[in-house]
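forwarding from the other thread:

> can someone predict this with iron/sulfur cluster?

sure thing
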Amino acid sequence: MFKPTTRHNIPSASSSNLDVKINKRNGSGKDLSGRYPFRLNFYERPPVLDITLEEFETCAIARLRVLSHIEALSHRSLPYPQFSAAVATYLKQHSPLGSNTARSANLEEERRRDEIGHWVLRLAFCRSPDLRARFVRTELALFKHRFETDDVTERAAFLRSLEFDWQLVDDGEKALYADKLKKCLWGDKEEAFKSESWFKVPWYSVPDLVGSRKVFINGGMAYVPQTLQISLVLQAFGSRLEKALELTAKNLPRLDEDERLGPVIDHLASSFLSGLGASDYQASGEAGSGSVVTAEMVDDVANRHFPPCMRNLYGRLKRDHHLKHFGRLQLTLFLKGIGLPLDEAIVFWRKMYGASMSDDKFNKEYKYNIRHSYGQEGRRANYPPKSCQQILTQNQPGTQDSHGCPFRHFSPENLTTFLTSTYPELDRSSPEMREIMDSVKASHYHVACTRVFEVTHKLKKGEGLGKDGESVSHPNKYADRSREMEREKLDAIKAKEEEDEPMS
Ligand code: SF4
């Protein structure tokens, strides 16, 4: 399938292998009648490409983020238009895929990356029935979204290219079963019947339509109206993908022996299992969300903006004047991310340990570690704050530890007590609390955390972090967004006051 090369940053040989002709219509200068004639793709032919290891990983991570985002949105029970709008916004920003008429897009490259990402993730997600099912579900949602938003002419051409063996119902048969077929239509049935055309397919290939009684069944065939064609297409996409994944699983042991690809694939699978794509948090400069936090300010910022994991750590530190190694590390890196400079971090930790520790012990044993976390000692690496995925999956906490994610690592009773005592907006018997606990039960920890953010920031269900319905994937994103929202509110009040001020 792939021929990964260890040469990084070299142009792909595939581009030179492809016929490059000037296609004035699509404006990209690439010949779209070749490998990627359509925006939609059933991914039937494995790509025979010469790609770099870097591309192998980056394309897969980009697609993993999209699928994780879709999965997170689908667990939040949003109305379909809101779900679809959130997917559209995310795709536009993170994984655009233009139609042939898109003028400025680099279609060839977009489609190439899309294809590579899909095929690499097949390798990662074919390993278990659970992973396969989740992959097929989210890929289906992505395909459905693209199908619905595709250019109508291009979509029709794409469907023709698939050469489905659907039988078109001819006029004679249509007239013969007119009464039965009309029952499957909505609105003005007579009018709809005249313009509608039907396909015949084996009834078991459209279980959703049969289950919802949307089709007429006769002689083992389901009569599917053109308007419900999408069900047929999705069914075909899903079943082909399922079969292909099972086939890939059988061949996977050979790939496991590859020392270069094995770790990448393992990492992708574990990210998805924890319910999160690789986190894309980037602190905006040293000060995280853009403003410096001092040691004095931490308490106030914690009460208003820390996510549950950090509220828990900070609460334990305040109570015990001590945190064990991984707890200290999780909190130190988080504080660095929100904008606590090194000198202020030293003041903060010294104050928190208080009289329980001598200056000498602090300087000898703890100051070094803080400086190390800030990249000032040892290898001088600038360690980034830990993402939810890392917190959820690495260094599982023991009974004496306080690091980790409360949604994953607390018992249901402890979690309920912690949340209700930390957030006055949450009531033990409220519907919101039930939703949070249901998400935890289903192992959707980031969905539970996102719901806490919505409730505590007076956002409607489905608004997520208040930006495109985004879910929590990083504690620092939680805190940054919370501070940003507060700033927006204050700016709005200030602007209103200035507006209301009488002119002198
Ligand atoms: S989901 Fe992430 S941000 Fe929320 S509590 Fe868990 S680790 Fe922290």
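The radius of gyration is 27 Å. thats all i got for now
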